[in-house]
Design brief:
The complex is a heterodimer of chains A (about 110) and B (about 110).
Chain A: E1 4-7, E2 10-14, E3 19-25, E4 33-38, E5 45-50, E6 56-59, E7 62-67, E8 72-77, E9 86-93, E10 101-103, E11 107-112
Parallel strand pairs in A: 2-11
Antiparallel strand pairs in A: 1-3, 3-8, 4-5, 4-9, 6-7, 7-8, 9-10, 9-11
Chain B: E1 3-7, E2 10-13, E3 19-26, E4 32-38, E5 45-52, E6 55-58, E7 64-70, E8 73-78, E9 87-94, E10 102-104, E11 108-112
Parallel strand pairs in B: 2-11
Antiparallel strand pairs in B: 1-3, 3-8, 4-5, 4-9, 5-6, 7-8, 9-10, 9-11
The chains are: A mainly beta (about 110), B mainly beta (about 110).
Chain lengths: ~110, ~110
């Protein structure tokens, strides 16, 4: 049972454009929502995260928007660069079961020069 | 900061052979530890998690097992590998505090032939 749905599966953006990746969750027993960036052959790296009592968090060119009532959150990458080309995963942390993360299926982002 | 080591980095094993992958963590005590598998495609499948020495929870019934013989050591094993066990195996750790941040290791690429 997939509890975090991520879209789109792939995304092509021009350099300097805005990349937007969306996630929706189906369970309210989550208390932390991170985003990971993964390059081929590497482990996922924590990019940015938000807690449900905050509606937006910004770190450099990366922003998370969180809508608790809609159970949706999104990642915005401003001024996208070719070096941002990677696979991005959203996740939601369970309040039980060892605090495990439930991951979305990933979005493959390609930023064209 | 936490450092996660995974050994080996790559492994090619024949069907029916045993498996042992090791994960060790530095820079934290009594962490939660996780094993994930990433098959072709992009999804991250949680296999096992541990909240303490000797405490293992299994997420997916299969021919793999996990053990935590020491506080910062997590081992993934199999008695007989299947072709379907091929994939990218990732160890992850999370501190037992309110940071909620989960970090991944560099991964082990397993090919079963």
């Amino acid at each position: 049972q997939q509890q975090v749905k991520q879209s789109p599966q792939s995304l092509i953006v021009q350099k300097g454009g805005i990349s937007i990746i969306n996630c929706a969750y189906e369970n309210t027993a989550f208390d932390y929502f991170p985003w990971y960036q993964q390059f081929p052959g590497k482990g996922p790296a924590l990019l940015i995260a938000i807690r449900p009592d905050v509606s937006e968090k910004k770190e450099g060119r990366f922003t998370i928007s969180f809508n608790k009532s809609a159970k949706q959150f999104s990642l915005h990458i401003m001024d996208s660069q070719p070096g941002d080309s990677a696979t991005y995963f959203c996740a939601a942390k369970s309040t039980s079961q060892g605090g495990k993360l439930i991951f979305g299926q990933g979005t493959e982002l390609s930023v064209k020069p | 900061s936490q450092t996660i080591h995974q050994w080996p980095a790559t492994l090619v094993q024949p069907v029916g052979s045993p498996l042992s992958l090791e994960c060790t963590v530095e820079g934290t005590s009594n962490p939660n530890l996780y094993w994930y598998r990433q098959a072709a495609g992009r999804g991250l499948q949680l296999l096992f998690y541990s909240v303490g020495i000797g405490q293992i929870s299994s997420e997916v019934p299969q021919n793999l097992s996990a053990s935590r013989p020491q506080d910062r050591q997590f081992i993934l094993s199999s008695k007989k590998l299947l072709l379907s066990d091929s994939g990218f195996y990732l160890c992850a750790t999370r501190r037992r505090d309110l940071s909620y941040e989960q970090y991944f290791g560099p991964g082990t690429r397993l090919t079963v032939t």
